[in-house]
Amino acid sequence: MSQKNVRLEVMKHLExxxxxxIQKFLIPIDTIWQPQDFLPDARDDNFLDQITEIQExxxxxxxxxxxxLVGDMITEEALPTYESWLMxxxxxxxxxxxxxxxxxxxxxxxxxxxxxxxxxYLYLSGKVNxxxxxxxxxxxxxxxxxxxxxxxxxxNFIYTSFQELATYVxxxxxxxxxxxxxxxxxxxxxxxxxxxxMRHHTAYAEFVERIFAVDPSQMMLAFTDMMxxxxxxxxxxxxxxxxxxxxxxxxxxxxxxxxxxxxxxDYVDILDKLIKRWEIDKITNLTDEAEKAxxxxxxxxxxxxxxxxRMKLPESSHQFKWVEPSRI
Length: 328
Known about the structure:
Layout: H1 3-15, H2 18-25, H3 47-58, H4 63-77, H5 79-86, H6 99-125, H7 130-143, H8 153-180, H9 184-214, H10 216-229, H11 247-258, H12 264-277, H13 288-310
């Protein structure tokens, strides 16, 4: 049987548990939080006073903070791209409406709230150029993305396990900065988003764990392949209006690293956490090729940490069109 057919059989094998996984990791729509829980209600008589309070609290947040918050929001707003990608993964059939397609759709519906919340907050804050933000968002969706997984479900689950934990780190750190600046409501918003990301990470990590149990060698090879390519964040094609693809993402990444929101060290830490979570060192019944792949993975964190410690960042901030320094 070809490797592709084996993957499809494994996906069918796991699909029988999707309903229980949805109940375990996703929250019913009528129960889960919504953006409006944290935003002013335009029907209230004191609506304008609430906006004034948001803008007063926003005055003390530094330039780099706004750049990172905007970049995080744009990443969340590009969700249509991510859903369309996952719906095309082998074993996911949205036409027939199988269990995996149901998972992707419901996962997407939860993620969609993140962009809605942060977008509305940024608009009300009065601190960013929303038209430029909107152009970047449209560019990101129009340009699409390639995360190096092809249609392989194993690689896609490795990617989502890593990426969901990375977004948890980013949103959680933004929340910590907001809290230190006295912006408690914004901190709470970002904490709620971070909580969703951690829950989703736990789900995808369990999917990978279940695949390791039935197809350990191919899962090990998929994990190694993704780490050799390096996990690319979903907004890696980020650009400003009139800019070229990727030029803005590097500057955004530099900004996030400079204020400690998401760093090269965090990347290594996430890899280390996944290796321990999946107990890579204890997996048995591997082919010779998969054994070599395991050896590579076990040595990778220490190698990458040495590289991360030598990295140097630009001292000055790139001037994004999204955030005008004169308004900070």
